[in-house]
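Section 4.2 – Deliverable D4.2 (structural model, holo form)

The reporting period included a commitment to supply a predicted holo structure for the target in complex with zinc ion. Inputs used:
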Amino acid sequence: MQSAVTRSLLSLLIVVMLAPSGAAADAARAEAAARIRADVEFLADDSLEGREAGTDGYDDAADYVVRRLKEIGAQPANRDGWRQKIRLRSAVRDLDASRFIINSADGAEELRHLDDYIAARSYSRAGFHVEAPVVYVGYGVVAPEDGVDAYQGLDVAGKIVVAFDGAPPGMNTEKRAFYAKGEVKLSYAAERGAAGFVAMPTKAEIARNKWPRVVSGAKAAGMTFFGPNRRPLIAAPDVRAVATLNESGARKLFKGEEIDYDALLAGEDGGKGAPKGFNLRKSATLSGRSFLSDATSANVIGIIRGSDRRLAKEVVLITAHLDHLGVTPGRKPGEDAIYNGAVDNASGVAVMLEAARMMADAGERPKRTVAFVALTAEEKGLLGSQYMTIYSPFTGRRAVADINIDMPVALFPFTDVIAFGAERSTIGATVEIAASEMGVALAADPMPDENFFVRSDHYSFIKAGVPSIFLRLGFSNGGEKALQDFLRDHYHQPSDDATLPIDYDALARFADLNYRIAREIADAPEAPAWNEGDFFGELFSAE
Ligand SMILES: [Zn+2]
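Output (C-alpha coordinates):
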Protein backbone atom coordinates (compact mmCIF):
# COMPACT_ATOMS: atom_id res chain seq x y z
CA MET A 1 0.00 0.00 0.00
CA GLN A 2 1.27 3.47 -0.84
CA SER A 3 1.52 6.05 1.89
CA ALA A 4 -0.87 8.97 1.84
CA VAL A 5 2.05 11.30 1.17
CA THR A 6 3.21 9.47 -1.97
CA ARG A 7 -0.31 9.28 -3.26
CA SER A 8 -0.93 12.94 -2.66
CA LEU A 9 2.30 13.88 -4.43
CA LEU A 10 1.29 11.72 -7.39
CA SER A 11 -2.16 13.19 -7.61
CA LEU A 12 -0.73 16.69 -7.27
CA LEU A 13 1.41 15.98 -10.30
CA ILE A 14 -1.61 14.73 -12.23
CA VAL A 15 -3.60 17.80 -11.28
CA VAL A 16 -0.81 20.09 -12.44
CA MET A 17 -0.73 18.27 -15.79
CA LEU A 18 -4.50 18.13 -16.28
CA ALA A 19 -5.72 21.33 -14.69
CA PRO A 20 -7.33 23.75 -17.10
CA SER A 21 -5.54 27.06 -17.53
CA GLY A 22 -6.25 29.79 -14.98
CA ALA A 23 -8.78 31.72 -16.99
CA ALA A 24 -10.77 28.65 -18.03
CA ALA A 25 -10.78 27.39 -14.45
CA ASP A 26 -12.01 30.77 -13.20
CA ALA A 27 -14.82 30.77 -15.74
CA ALA A 28 -15.86 27.21 -14.79
CA ARG A 29 -15.86 28.17 -11.10
CA ALA A 30 -18.00 31.25 -11.84
CA GLU A 31 -20.52 29.08 -13.68
CA ALA A 32 -20.62 26.62 -10.78
CA ALA A 33 -21.14 29.51 -8.34
CA ALA A 34 -24.03 30.81 -10.46
CA ARG A 35 -25.74 27.38 -10.50
CA ILE A 36 -25.35 27.05 -6.74
CA ARG A 37 -26.75 30.51 -6.23
CA ALA A 38 -29.81 29.74 -8.37
CA ASP A 39 -30.47 26.55 -6.39
CA VAL A 40 -30.10 28.31 -3.03
CA GLU A 41 -32.35 31.17 -4.10
CA PHE A 42 -35.04 28.77 -5.29
CA LEU A 43 -34.93 26.53 -2.23
CA ALA A 44 -34.76 29.39 0.28
CA ASP A 45 -37.63 31.33 -1.33
CA ASP A 46 -40.60 32.27 0.88
CA SER A 47 -42.90 30.31 -1.44
CA LEU A 48 -41.46 27.03 -0.08
CA GLU A 49 -42.49 28.08 3.43
CA GLY A 50 -39.43 26.76 5.23
CA ARG A 51 -39.48 23.22 3.69
CA GLU A 52 -40.73 21.44 6.79
CA ALA A 53 -40.99 17.66 6.38
CA GLY A 54 -44.59 16.66 5.69
CA THR A 55 -45.61 20.02 4.15
CA ASP A 56 -46.36 21.11 0.56
CA GLY A 57 -43.36 23.43 0.71
CA TYR A 58 -41.06 20.48 1.28
CA ASP A 59 -42.72 18.53 -1.53
CA ASP A 60 -42.19 21.46 -3.91
CA ALA A 61 -38.53 21.55 -2.91
CA ALA A 62 -38.30 17.79 -3.54
CA ASP A 63 -39.86 18.24 -7.00
CA TYR A 64 -37.21 20.86 -7.76
CA VAL A 65 -34.38 18.52 -6.74
CA VAL A 66 -35.81 15.76 -8.97
CA ARG A 67 -35.92 18.22 -11.89
CA ARG A 68 -32.32 19.25 -11.27
CA LEU A 69 -31.07 15.66 -10.94
CA LYS A 70 -32.77 14.76 -14.25
CA GLU A 71 -31.24 17.81 -15.91
CA ILE A 72 -27.81 16.78 -14.60
CA GLY A 73 -28.23 13.29 -16.07
CA ALA A 74 -28.67 11.21 -12.90
CA GLN A 75 -31.13 8.34 -12.80
CA PRO A 76 -33.70 7.20 -10.23
CA ALA A 77 -32.32 4.83 -7.60
CA ASN A 78 -34.71 2.00 -8.45
CA ARG A 79 -38.00 1.09 -10.07
CA ASP A 80 -39.93 3.05 -7.44
CA GLY A 81 -38.56 6.24 -8.91
CA TRP A 82 -36.79 9.24 -7.43
CA ARG A 83 -38.60 9.41 -4.11
CA GLN A 84 -38.32 7.17 -1.08
CA LYS A 85 -41.59 7.91 0.73
CA ILE A 86 -41.67 7.82 4.52
CA ARG A 87 -44.72 7.75 6.81
CA LEU A 88 -44.14 10.14 9.67
CA ARG A 89 -45.88 10.68 12.97
CA SER A 90 -45.93 14.22 14.22
CA ALA A 91 -46.39 15.19 17.88
CA VAL A 92 -47.05 18.67 19.29
CA ARG A 93 -46.90 19.00 23.07
CA ASP A 94 -50.17 19.59 24.88
CA LEU A 95 -48.66 22.27 27.11
CA ASP A 96 -51.53 22.02 29.62
CA ALA A 97 -51.21 18.27 30.10
CA SER A 98 -47.67 18.21 31.54
CA ARG A 99 -46.96 17.68 35.22
CA PHE A 100 -43.72 17.51 37.20
CA ILE A 101 -44.47 17.20 40.90
CA ILE A 102 -41.73 16.72 43.50
CA ASN A 103 -42.92 14.73 46.54
CA SER A 104 -40.86 14.87 49.73
CA ALA A 105 -41.39 14.60 53.49
CA ASP A 106 -42.09 18.36 53.48
CA GLY A 107 -44.97 17.96 51.03
CA ALA A 108 -45.43 18.34 47.28
CA GLU A 109 -44.04 21.06 45.01
CA GLU A 110 -45.19 21.36 41.42
CA LEU A 111 -42.69 22.67 38.88
CA ARG A 112 -43.83 25.14 36.23
CA HIS A 113 -43.78 23.88 32.64
CA LEU A 114 -41.46 25.95 30.39
CA ASP A 115 -40.22 27.94 33.42
CA ASP A 116 -38.63 24.98 35.26
CA TYR A 117 -38.78 22.06 32.83
CA ILE A 118 -40.04 20.75 29.50
CA ALA A 119 -41.79 17.41 29.26
CA ALA A 120 -40.82 15.29 26.26
CA ARG A 121 -43.24 14.77 23.39
CA SER A 122 -45.15 11.53 23.42
CA TYR A 123 -45.76 9.63 20.19
CA SER A 124 -48.40 7.31 21.60
CA ARG A 125 -52.05 8.21 22.10
CA ALA A 126 -51.96 7.55 25.83
CA GLY A 127 -49.10 9.92 26.69
CA PHE A 128 -47.11 9.06 29.81
CA HIS A 129 -47.56 9.09 33.58
CA VAL A 130 -44.92 7.83 36.02
CA GLU A 131 -44.70 8.24 39.79
CA ALA A 132 -41.42 6.92 41.24
CA PRO A 133 -38.40 7.59 43.49
CA VAL A 134 -35.64 9.72 41.97
CA VAL A 135 -31.99 8.67 41.59
CA TYR A 136 -29.20 11.03 40.52
CA VAL A 137 -26.71 9.30 38.18
CA GLY A 138 -23.98 11.83 37.29
CA TYR A 139 -23.83 12.12 33.50
CA GLY A 140 -25.68 8.81 33.14
CA VAL A 141 -22.84 7.44 31.01
CA VAL A 142 -21.51 3.89 30.93
CA ALA A 143 -18.12 3.67 29.16
CA PRO A 144 -16.34 0.55 30.43
CA GLU A 145 -13.24 1.20 28.28
CA ASP A 146 -12.74 4.46 30.20
CA GLY A 147 -13.67 2.97 33.58
CA VAL A 148 -16.88 5.01 33.68
CA ASP A 149 -20.13 3.55 35.08
CA ALA A 150 -22.53 6.17 36.42
CA TYR A 151 -24.93 3.46 37.62
CA GLN A 152 -22.40 1.56 39.73
CA GLY A 153 -23.93 0.51 43.06
CA LEU A 154 -27.32 2.07 42.23
CA ASP A 155 -30.63 0.27 41.72
CA VAL A 156 -32.76 2.29 39.31
CA ALA A 157 -35.34 -0.33 38.31
CA GLY A 158 -38.78 1.30 38.16
CA LYS A 159 -37.29 4.66 39.20
CA ILE A 160 -36.76 8.05 37.60
CA VAL A 161 -33.09 8.82 36.96
CA VAL A 162 -31.81 12.39 36.75
CA ALA A 163 -28.55 13.08 34.93
CA PHE A 164 -26.42 15.98 33.79
CA ASP A 165 -26.41 16.66 30.07
CA GLY A 166 -23.20 15.81 28.26
CA ALA A 167 -20.49 13.29 29.05
CA PRO A 168 -17.45 13.13 31.32
CA PRO A 169 -14.63 15.49 30.30
CA GLY A 170 -11.36 14.11 29.03
CA MET A 171 -12.69 11.84 26.29
CA ASN A 172 -11.83 12.23 22.62
CA THR A 173 -14.32 14.78 21.22
CA GLU A 174 -16.23 12.51 18.81
CA LYS A 175 -16.46 9.75 21.39
CA ARG A 176 -17.64 12.21 24.00
CA ALA A 177 -20.25 13.44 21.55
CA PHE A 178 -21.49 9.84 21.23
CA TYR A 179 -21.83 9.41 25.00
CA ALA A 180 -23.52 12.81 25.32
CA LYS A 181 -26.35 11.79 23.00
CA GLY A 182 -29.76 11.46 24.60
CA GLU A 183 -30.64 8.19 22.85
CA VAL A 184 -27.42 6.59 24.14
CA LYS A 185 -28.02 7.71 27.72
CA LEU A 186 -31.64 6.56 27.49
CA SER A 187 -30.41 3.12 26.44
CA TYR A 188 -28.31 2.77 29.62
CA ALA A 189 -31.31 3.79 31.73
CA ALA A 190 -33.52 1.33 29.82
CA GLU A 191 -31.08 -1.57 30.26
CA ARG A 192 -31.31 -1.01 34.01
CA GLY A 193 -35.09 -0.88 34.04
CA ALA A 194 -35.56 2.85 34.74
CA ALA A 195 -39.11 4.15 34.20
CA GLY A 196 -38.16 7.79 33.69
CA PHE A 197 -35.23 9.96 32.58
CA VAL A 198 -34.70 13.60 33.47
CA ALA A 199 -31.84 15.69 32.07
CA MET A 200 -30.40 18.80 33.74
CA PRO A 201 -27.91 21.41 32.55
CA THR A 202 -24.18 21.48 33.18
CA LYS A 203 -22.34 24.64 34.17
CA ALA A 204 -21.16 25.13 30.57
CA GLU A 205 -24.74 24.92 29.31
CA ILE A 206 -25.99 27.41 31.87
CA ALA A 207 -23.22 29.77 30.72
CA ARG A 208 -24.37 29.38 27.11
CA ASN A 209 -27.96 30.20 28.15
CA LYS A 210 -29.63 27.62 25.90
CA TRP A 211 -32.99 27.67 27.68
CA PRO A 212 -34.79 30.43 25.68
CA ARG A 213 -34.08 28.51 22.48
CA VAL A 214 -35.22 25.25 24.07
CA VAL A 215 -38.49 26.91 25.10
CA SER A 216 -39.10 28.41 21.67
CA GLY A 217 -38.57 24.95 20.13
CA ALA A 218 -40.97 23.38 22.64
CA LYS A 219 -44.04 24.48 20.71
CA ALA A 220 -42.81 23.00 17.43
CA ALA A 221 -43.83 19.56 16.19
CA GLY A 222 -41.51 16.64 16.77
CA MET A 223 -41.54 13.68 14.44
CA THR A 224 -40.63 10.07 14.09
CA PHE A 225 -41.32 7.45 11.40
CA PHE A 226 -43.19 4.21 11.53
CA GLY A 227 -40.62 1.49 12.16
CA PRO A 228 -40.41 -2.17 11.23
CA ASN A 229 -43.11 -3.15 13.76
CA ARG A 230 -45.47 -0.50 12.28
CA ARG A 231 -45.22 1.50 15.49
CA PRO A 232 -43.70 4.97 15.73
CA LEU A 233 -39.98 4.39 16.23
CA ILE A 234 -38.65 5.92 19.46
CA ALA A 235 -35.51 5.36 21.49
CA ALA A 236 -36.00 3.28 24.67
CA PRO A 237 -39.83 3.08 24.78
CA ASP A 238 -39.72 1.42 28.22
CA VAL A 239 -38.31 4.58 29.74
CA ARG A 240 -41.79 6.04 29.62
CA ALA A 241 -41.41 9.50 31.14
CA VAL A 242 -38.76 11.92 29.87
CA ALA A 243 -38.22 15.57 30.75
CA THR A 244 -35.57 18.28 30.72
CA LEU A 245 -34.97 20.58 33.68
CA ASN A 246 -33.40 23.99 33.55
CA GLU A 247 -31.28 25.48 36.32
CA SER A 248 -34.23 26.59 38.44
CA GLY A 249 -36.02 23.25 38.11
CA ALA A 250 -32.86 21.34 39.05
CA ARG A 251 -32.35 23.55 42.06
CA LYS A 252 -35.90 22.75 43.26
CA LEU A 253 -35.46 19.02 42.71
CA PHE A 254 -32.26 18.88 44.79
CA LYS A 255 -33.43 21.29 47.50
CA GLY A 256 -32.78 19.82 50.96
CA GLU A 257 -30.57 16.99 49.66
CA GLU A 258 -27.21 16.37 51.29
CA ILE A 259 -25.57 17.47 48.04
CA ASP A 260 -27.73 20.08 46.34
CA TYR A 261 -27.64 21.24 42.72
CA ASP A 262 -25.14 24.03 43.32
CA ALA A 263 -22.79 21.59 45.03
CA LEU A 264 -23.20 19.19 42.11
CA LEU A 265 -22.45 22.02 39.68
CA ALA A 266 -19.36 23.01 41.65
CA GLY A 267 -18.09 19.44 41.34
CA GLU A 268 -19.10 19.17 37.69
CA ASP A 269 -17.16 22.31 36.79
CA GLY A 270 -13.40 22.48 36.38
CA GLY A 271 -12.95 19.30 34.36
CA LYS A 272 -13.34 17.00 37.37
CA GLY A 273 -16.61 15.54 36.11
CA ALA A 274 -19.94 15.04 37.86
CA PRO A 275 -20.04 13.82 41.48
CA LYS A 276 -21.09 10.19 42.04
CA GLY A 277 -24.72 9.11 41.91
CA PHE A 278 -27.06 8.77 44.93
CA ASN A 279 -30.71 8.20 45.83
CA LEU A 280 -32.68 11.38 46.44
CA ARG A 281 -34.99 11.59 49.45
CA LYS A 282 -37.82 12.39 47.05
CA SER A 283 -40.08 10.87 44.47
CA ALA A 284 -41.54 12.60 41.46
CA THR A 285 -44.70 12.47 39.40
CA LEU A 286 -44.09 13.04 35.70
CA SER A 287 -46.72 13.15 32.99
CA GLY A 288 -47.19 14.49 29.49
CA ARG A 289 -49.27 14.17 26.36
CA SER A 290 -49.09 15.37 22.77
CA PHE A 291 -51.44 16.10 19.92
CA LEU A 292 -50.68 13.56 17.18
CA SER A 293 -51.01 13.59 13.40
CA ASP A 294 -49.49 11.61 10.54
CA ALA A 295 -47.82 12.86 7.36
CA THR A 296 -45.71 11.62 4.46
CA SER A 297 -42.38 12.96 3.24
CA ALA A 298 -39.72 11.64 0.90
CA ASN A 299 -35.98 11.36 0.49
CA VAL A 300 -35.01 12.22 -3.10
CA ILE A 301 -32.36 9.93 -4.55
CA GLY A 302 -30.58 10.08 -7.91
CA ILE A 303 -27.71 7.82 -8.94
CA ILE A 304 -24.93 7.63 -11.48
CA ARG A 305 -24.36 3.93 -12.11
CA GLY A 306 -20.86 2.61 -11.65
CA SER A 307 -18.96 1.55 -14.76
CA ASP A 308 -17.32 -1.49 -13.16
CA ARG A 309 -19.72 -4.47 -13.06
CA ARG A 310 -18.56 -5.68 -9.67
CA LEU A 311 -17.89 -2.34 -7.97
CA ALA A 312 -21.16 -0.83 -9.25
CA LYS A 313 -22.93 -2.87 -6.55
CA GLU A 314 -21.26 -0.63 -3.99
CA VAL A 315 -22.75 2.83 -3.46
CA VAL A 316 -20.94 6.00 -2.40
CA LEU A 317 -23.48 8.47 -1.01
CA ILE A 318 -23.40 12.25 -1.05
CA THR A 319 -26.17 13.40 1.27
CA ALA A 320 -27.61 16.79 2.24
CA HIS A 321 -30.82 17.40 4.14
CA LEU A 322 -33.49 19.30 2.25
CA ASP A 323 -35.92 19.96 5.07
CA HIS A 324 -35.92 22.88 7.47
CA LEU A 325 -38.16 24.27 10.20
CA GLY A 326 -41.24 25.54 8.35
CA VAL A 327 -43.16 28.54 9.65
CA THR A 328 -43.61 29.75 13.25
CA PRO A 329 -47.11 28.87 14.38
CA GLY A 330 -49.36 31.84 15.19
CA ARG A 331 -47.38 34.38 13.20
CA LYS A 332 -48.50 38.00 13.37
CA PRO A 333 -49.14 40.01 10.17
CA GLY A 334 -45.95 41.58 8.83
CA GLU A 335 -43.69 39.37 10.96
CA ASP A 336 -41.02 37.29 9.19
CA ALA A 337 -41.86 33.85 10.46
CA ILE A 338 -40.58 31.71 7.58
CA TYR A 339 -37.54 29.62 8.33
CA ASN A 340 -36.02 29.81 4.84
CA GLY A 341 -32.92 27.84 5.80
CA ALA A 342 -30.65 29.30 3.10
CA VAL A 343 -27.44 28.24 4.84
CA ASP A 344 -29.17 25.35 6.72
CA ASN A 345 -29.36 23.57 4.37
CA ALA A 346 -30.38 24.93 0.94
CA SER A 347 -26.67 25.66 0.47
CA GLY A 348 -25.74 22.05 1.28
CA VAL A 349 -28.28 20.68 -1.20
CA ALA A 350 -26.97 23.08 -3.85
CA VAL A 351 -23.41 21.86 -3.17
CA MET A 352 -24.59 18.24 -3.44
CA LEU A 353 -26.24 19.02 -6.80
CA GLU A 354 -23.08 20.68 -8.11
CA ALA A 355 -21.04 17.63 -7.04
CA ALA A 356 -23.56 15.51 -8.99
CA ARG A 357 -23.13 17.76 -12.00
CA MET A 358 -19.34 17.39 -11.81
CA MET A 359 -19.67 13.61 -11.56
CA ALA A 360 -22.04 13.47 -14.55
CA ASP A 361 -19.87 15.76 -16.70
CA ALA A 362 -16.54 14.16 -15.78
CA GLY A 363 -16.39 12.21 -19.05
CA GLU A 364 -15.65 8.86 -17.50
CA ARG A 365 -18.26 7.32 -15.19
CA PRO A 366 -17.14 6.42 -11.66
CA LYS A 367 -16.36 2.74 -11.06
CA ARG A 368 -18.71 2.51 -8.09
CA THR A 369 -22.29 3.75 -8.14
CA VAL A 370 -22.64 7.22 -6.65
CA ALA A 371 -25.93 8.33 -5.11
CA PHE A 372 -26.99 11.94 -4.60
CA VAL A 373 -29.50 12.19 -1.81
CA ALA A 374 -31.66 15.06 -0.56
CA LEU A 375 -32.81 13.83 2.84
CA THR A 376 -36.02 14.65 4.66
CA ALA A 377 -36.68 15.25 8.37
CA GLU A 378 -33.08 15.82 9.46
CA GLU A 379 -34.32 18.64 11.67
CA LYS A 380 -36.73 16.19 13.32
CA GLY A 381 -33.88 13.93 14.48
CA LEU A 382 -31.99 12.60 11.43
CA LEU A 383 -35.10 10.66 10.36
CA GLY A 384 -34.67 10.48 6.57
CA SER A 385 -31.13 9.15 6.85
CA GLN A 386 -32.05 6.72 9.62
CA TYR A 387 -34.94 5.41 7.51
CA MET A 388 -32.59 4.86 4.56
CA THR A 389 -30.31 2.70 6.68
CA ILE A 390 -33.25 0.50 7.77
CA TYR A 391 -35.00 0.36 4.38
CA SER A 392 -32.35 0.43 1.67
CA PRO A 393 -33.53 2.11 -1.53
CA PHE A 394 -30.73 0.38 -3.48
CA THR A 395 -31.96 -3.01 -4.65
CA GLY A 396 -28.99 -5.35 -4.87
CA ARG A 397 -26.51 -2.65 -3.89
CA ARG A 398 -24.99 -1.65 -0.56
CA ALA A 399 -23.78 1.68 0.78
CA VAL A 400 -20.00 1.77 1.42
CA ALA A 401 -19.49 5.43 2.35
CA ASP A 402 -21.40 8.61 3.10
CA ILE A 403 -20.16 12.13 2.52
CA ASN A 404 -22.61 14.46 4.22
CA ILE A 405 -23.03 18.16 3.57
CA ASP A 406 -24.91 20.16 6.19
CA MET A 407 -24.87 23.88 6.84
CA PRO A 408 -21.57 24.94 5.30
CA VAL A 409 -21.49 28.42 6.77
CA ALA A 410 -19.88 29.80 3.61
CA LEU A 411 -20.01 33.47 4.43
CA PHE A 412 -16.27 33.99 3.81
CA PRO A 413 -13.54 32.61 1.50
CA PHE A 414 -12.48 29.54 3.49
CA THR A 415 -8.91 28.25 3.51
CA ASP A 416 -9.27 25.26 5.84
CA VAL A 417 -11.84 22.57 6.66
CA ILE A 418 -12.60 20.23 9.58
CA ALA A 419 -13.23 16.67 8.41
CA PHE A 420 -15.37 14.98 11.06
CA GLY A 421 -14.91 11.22 10.99
CA ALA A 422 -11.86 11.35 8.72
CA GLU A 423 -9.40 9.87 11.22
CA ARG A 424 -11.70 6.91 11.83
CA SER A 425 -11.46 5.21 8.47
CA THR A 426 -9.41 4.96 5.29
CA ILE A 427 -11.45 7.94 4.01
CA GLY A 428 -9.03 10.09 6.01
CA ALA A 429 -6.22 9.53 3.48
CA THR A 430 -8.62 10.38 0.66
CA VAL A 431 -9.62 13.64 2.33
CA GLU A 432 -5.94 14.58 2.73
CA ILE A 433 -5.31 14.06 -0.97
CA ALA A 434 -8.38 15.99 -2.10
CA ALA A 435 -7.70 18.87 0.28
CA SER A 436 -4.06 19.16 -0.71
CA GLU A 437 -4.97 19.12 -4.41
CA MET A 438 -7.11 22.16 -3.74
CA GLY A 439 -4.67 23.90 -1.41
CA VAL A 440 -7.10 23.60 1.49
CA ALA A 441 -5.72 22.89 4.98
CA LEU A 442 -7.21 20.36 7.40
CA ALA A 443 -7.90 21.56 10.96
CA ALA A 444 -8.87 19.87 14.23
CA ASP A 445 -12.37 20.39 15.69
CA PRO A 446 -12.23 23.83 17.37
CA MET A 447 -15.69 23.52 19.01
CA PRO A 448 -15.90 20.08 20.63
CA ASP A 449 -18.73 21.21 22.97
CA GLU A 450 -21.05 21.63 19.97
CA ASN A 451 -20.95 17.85 19.29
CA PHE A 452 -21.24 18.46 15.53
CA PHE A 453 -20.09 14.91 14.80
CA VAL A 454 -23.34 13.32 16.01
CA ARG A 455 -25.65 16.13 14.91
CA SER A 456 -26.18 15.46 11.24
CA ASP A 457 -27.14 12.69 8.85
CA HIS A 458 -23.74 11.04 8.35
CA TYR A 459 -24.16 9.81 11.92
CA SER A 460 -27.08 7.58 10.86
CA PHE A 461 -24.74 5.88 8.38
CA ILE A 462 -22.01 5.58 11.01
CA LYS A 463 -24.55 3.81 13.24
CA ALA A 464 -25.25 1.46 10.34
CA GLY A 465 -21.53 0.61 10.18
CA VAL A 466 -20.78 2.70 7.07
CA PRO A 467 -17.57 4.80 7.21
CA SER A 468 -18.68 8.39 6.75
CA ILE A 469 -17.40 11.92 6.85
CA PHE A 470 -18.77 15.39 7.29
CA LEU A 471 -16.80 18.47 6.27
CA ARG A 472 -17.25 21.85 7.91
CA LEU A 473 -15.43 25.05 7.02
CA GLY A 474 -12.55 25.90 9.34
CA PHE A 475 -11.77 28.90 11.55
CA SER A 476 -9.01 30.46 9.41
CA ASN A 477 -9.42 33.51 7.22
CA GLY A 478 -12.47 34.86 9.06
CA GLY A 479 -14.18 31.49 9.56
CA GLU A 480 -14.36 31.68 13.33
CA LYS A 481 -16.17 35.00 13.40
CA ALA A 482 -18.43 34.00 10.51
CA LEU A 483 -19.51 30.82 12.31
CA GLN A 484 -19.95 32.39 15.75
CA ASP A 485 -21.95 35.30 14.30
CA PHE A 486 -24.11 32.91 12.29
CA LEU A 487 -24.81 30.63 15.25
CA ARG A 488 -25.72 33.61 17.42
CA ASP A 489 -27.77 35.69 14.96
CA HIS A 490 -29.22 33.38 12.29
CA TYR A 491 -28.96 29.66 13.14
CA HIS A 492 -32.49 28.18 13.22
CA GLN A 493 -34.02 31.63 12.86
CA PRO A 494 -36.10 33.19 10.06
CA SER A 495 -33.13 35.45 9.23
CA ASP A 496 -31.19 32.47 7.78
CA ASP A 497 -32.33 33.48 4.30
CA ALA A 498 -30.81 34.25 0.89
CA THR A 499 -30.11 37.89 1.80
CA LEU A 500 -27.14 36.69 3.91
CA PRO A 501 -23.80 37.43 2.21
CA ILE A 502 -23.26 33.86 1.02
CA ASP A 503 -19.91 33.41 -0.74
CA TYR A 504 -20.99 31.36 -3.76
CA ASP A 505 -17.44 31.01 -5.02
CA ALA A 506 -16.58 29.39 -1.67
CA LEU A 507 -19.52 27.02 -2.08
CA ALA A 508 -18.31 26.13 -5.59
CA ARG A 509 -14.88 25.25 -4.16
CA PHE A 510 -16.58 23.28 -1.38
CA ALA A 511 -18.56 21.33 -3.99
CA ASP A 512 -15.32 20.61 -5.85
CA LEU A 513 -13.68 19.33 -2.66
CA ASN A 514 -16.59 17.03 -1.77
CA TYR A 515 -16.76 15.85 -5.38
CA ARG A 516 -13.05 14.95 -5.41
CA ILE A 517 -13.42 12.94 -2.22
CA ALA A 518 -16.44 11.07 -3.57
CA ARG A 519 -14.75 10.47 -6.90
CA GLU A 520 -11.60 9.08 -5.30
CA ILE A 521 -13.65 6.73 -3.08
CA ALA A 522 -15.78 5.66 -6.04
CA ASP A 523 -12.75 4.74 -8.17
CA ALA A 524 -10.50 3.20 -5.49
CA PRO A 525 -9.79 -0.56 -5.74
CA GLU A 526 -11.02 -1.14 -2.18
CA ALA A 527 -14.13 0.23 -0.47
CA PRO A 528 -13.48 2.39 2.62
CA ALA A 529 -12.76 0.50 5.83
CA TRP A 530 -12.78 1.48 9.50
CA ASN A 531 -9.36 1.89 11.01
CA GLU A 532 -8.23 -0.97 13.21
CA GLY A 533 -9.74 -0.67 16.69
CA ASP A 534 -11.71 2.47 15.92
CA PHE A 535 -14.33 3.23 18.58
CA PHE A 536 -17.26 3.71 16.17
CA GLY A 537 -16.09 0.96 13.84
CA GLU A 538 -16.02 -1.57 16.67
CA LEU A 539 -19.33 -0.37 18.09
CA PHE A 540 -21.38 -0.39 14.91
CA SER A 541 -19.73 -2.37 12.16
CA ALA A 542 -21.16 -5.83 11.43
CA GLU A 543 -17.82 -7.63 11.04
ZN1 LIG B 1 -30.68 22.76 11.17
